[in-house]
């Protein structure tokens, strides 16, 4: 049974980029912007499939800018921290607000990182932790489930022209044939 409140997945963006070999290779060949883009694209469908609200958190990388949040979809947003704030401190504040019940939009918070200190902090505030390896495996599993479901839907429709028609056309054809 699902809760009516959506879980929040907080992703330590640069930690994931530095941990996944495919994203590290993209970062090294094409730069951080492309690696960030690939991470976000990877998370969009996963987020919808799992029923999460996802916030990918990136450090400001020494840019003297205020904190910003970009909404990429209904389910996924990106937070660039203010220049004096790290992704770790941002995630810690969200977890602390959740622990003190100031954060009431979510009944669960899951923190995806390989950072041991971040893991301990998140758990201490009552959030759940997901390692970068588990996140990668869960994303792959989610892709496989979606692919199987799509293939099943294609097979169930069959190869007959009748099955390719919309419902109204199918009804007209059935009346004509009877």
Explain what you see.
This protein has one domain (8-177). It contains eight helices and six strands, in the order E-H-H-H-E-E-E-H-E-H-E-H-H-H. The chain has helices spanning 13-19, 21-30, 32-50, 87-99, 116-124, 132-157, 161-164, 167-177; strands at residues 8-12, 53-58, 68-71, 76-80, 109-112, 128-130. It has a six-stranded mixed beta sheet. It is elongated and about 75 Å long. It starts with 7 loop residues before the first strand and ends with a helix.
Cα shape: elongated
| Overall radius of gyration | 21 Å
Instruction: Please outline the major beta sheet.
Output: 6 strands, mixed
Mean pLDDT: 85
- What's the count of strands? 6
Structural class: alpha/beta
Distance between the termini: 45 Å
What share of residues are in beta strands? 15-25%
Total domain modules: 1
Helix content: 55-70%
Strand order of the largest sheet: 3-4-2-1-5-6
Residue stretches low in confidence (pLDDT < 50, at least 5 long) are none
Helix-strand pattern: EHHHEEEHEHEHHH
SS element count, helices: 8
């Amino acid at each position: 049974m699902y809760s009516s409140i959506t879980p929040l997945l907080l992703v330590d963006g640069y930690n994931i980029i530095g941990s996944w070999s495919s994203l590290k290779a993209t970062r090294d060949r094409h730069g951080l912007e492309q690696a960030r883009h690939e991470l976000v694209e990877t998370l969009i469908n996963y987020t919808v499939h799992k029923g999460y609200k996802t916030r990918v958190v990136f450090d400001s990388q020494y840019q003297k800018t205020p904190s910003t949040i970009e909404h990429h979809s209904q389910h996924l947003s990106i937070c660039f921290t203010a220049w004096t704030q790290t992704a770790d401190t941002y995630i810690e504040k969200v977890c602390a607000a959740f622990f003190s019940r100031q954060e009431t939009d979510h009944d669960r918070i899951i923190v995806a990182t390989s950072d041991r200190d971040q893991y301990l902090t998140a758990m201490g505030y009552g959030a759940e932790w997901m390692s970068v390896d588990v996140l990668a495996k869960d994303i792959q599993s989610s892709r496989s489930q979606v692919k199987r479901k799509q293939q099943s839907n294609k097979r169930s429709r069959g190869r007959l022209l009748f099955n390719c028609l919309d419902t109204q056309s199918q009804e007209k054809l059935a009346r004509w044939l009877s």
